[in-house]
Specification:
- The chain is built from 12 helices and 9 strands.
- By secondary structure, the chain is an alpha/beta fold.
- It has 2 domains: about 140 residues, Aspartate/ornithine carbamoyltransferase (Rossmann fold); about 150 residues, 3-Layer(aba) Sandwich (Rossmann fold), CATH 3.40.50.
- The strands form 2 sheets. A 5-stranded parallel beta sheet has the order 7-6-5-8-9. The chain has a 4-stranded parallel beta sheet with strand order 2-1-3-4, sandwiched between helices.
- Helix 1 crosses helix 5 and helix 5 packs across helix 11.
- The two termini are about 20 Å apart.
- The relative contact order is 0.16.
- The structure holds phosphoric acid mono(formamide)ester.
- The site of phosphoric acid mono(formamide)ester has 9 residues, from helix 2.
Length: about 300
């Protein structure tokens, strides 16, 4: 298919065909990272601005590496190193960045809706690298890429997402993405961390971890997002871990070849035990590896790499 979407803002706005095109493109670009010289000229002359207003290791570094592997120039700015600290508004900052003619702006922000707002205010393509509790589309796409690689399909798989669903943009994007691609999604969390009305997304909801992972093909564990919680939502970490922590013992309830996922950062010993995180079924570091290829695919599609390839 010819790519026509200007921005990558959330999973709702991507069709099944577009998701498939992104995953196929990422599969094709993955081998570049295995070469001795990990660089192709596809986005030579293009400029990518990485505008991160929240801490990030995986997303920021992998977008940066992805841009460089495609020969684009990548420039990173953070809230503390920009003129936002002098009182400039976010929209003015984005307009000033736009005036320097970048080809893509990748943004992470603590407020939901910021990437959408910027997409209305500037003409540069925007990629959402995580906005508040709303969406993290590149994470969901790399998660789908990883599951498709391990299991050979997404349709019909049983995915259990467990943990702090309420505050998780990763959960929200994965619920929408995996459901669109035909997977059965089950959610497990304490009642205080389960959003009301989430069943309307077509998912199964339970407060019982063992019920959610019974026969699951994939288990996705989530960190407790303390930075987004206003109140204490569970008695103690020990109690949370006992009821909602993934251990090798608990894994016996899932399929024998279950794939274990986590978007990171991990809190070992809280939502996942170290031996479960490092077990043979763990795809946690494969997710990170695939994050580079998936973000290469997004930059390639959004920055017009397809048109460049035609020119060459
Ligand atoms: N998964 C994820 O978004 O990790 P970072 O916060 O380190 O980017």
């Amino acid at each position: 298919m010819m790519w026509s979407k200007k921005h990558i803002l959330d999973m709702e706005s991507l069709s099944v065909e577009e998701i498939t095109a992104i995953l196929d493109t990422a599969d094709g670009l993955k081998e570049i990272s295995q070469r001795t010289i990990k660089k192709v000229p596809t986005l030579r002359g293009k400029t990518v601005v990485l505008f991160f207003h929240e801490p990030s290791t995986r997303t920021r570094v992998s977008f940066d590496i992805a841009a460089k592997r495609l020969s684009a120039d990548a420039i990173s700015i953070s809230a503390s190193s920009s003129s936002l600290v002098k009182g400039e508004t976010l929209v003015d900052t984005a307009r000033n960045l736009e005036a320097m003619k970048p080809d893509v702006i990748v943004i992470r922000h603590s407020s939901a809706g910021t990437p959408f707002l910027l997409s209305q205010k500037v003409s540069t393509p925007i990629i959402n690298a995580g906005d508040g509790m709303h969406a993290h589309p590149s994470q969901a796409l790399l998660d789908m890429m990883t599951v498709r690689e391990v299991k050979g399909r997404l349709n019909g798989l049983r995915l259990a997402i467990v943990g702090d669903i309420s505050h998780s943009r990763v959960a929200r994007s994965n619920i929408i993405g995996f459901s669109k691609m035909g997977a059965e999604v089950r959610l497990a969390a304490p009642p205080t961390m389960m959003p009301t009305g989430i069943e309307s997304f077509g998912v199964t909801v339970t407060y019982d971890f063992d019920e959610a992972i019974d026969g699951a093909d994939v288990i996705m564990m989530l960190r407790i997002q303390k930075e987004r919680q206003r109140n204490f939502l569970f008695p103690t970490e020990r109690e949370y871990s006992r009821r909602y922590g993934l251990t090798l013992e608990r894994l016996k309830k899932a399929q024998p070849d279950v794939t274990i996922m986590h978007p990171g950062p991990l809190n070992r010993g809280v939502e996942i035990s170290p031996d479960a995180a490092d077990s043979v079924g763990s795809a946690i570091l494969d997710q990170v590896t695939n994050g580079v290829a998936l973000r290469m695919a997004l930059l390639y599609l959004v920055a017009g790499g397809m048109r460049n390839a035609d020119d060459h």
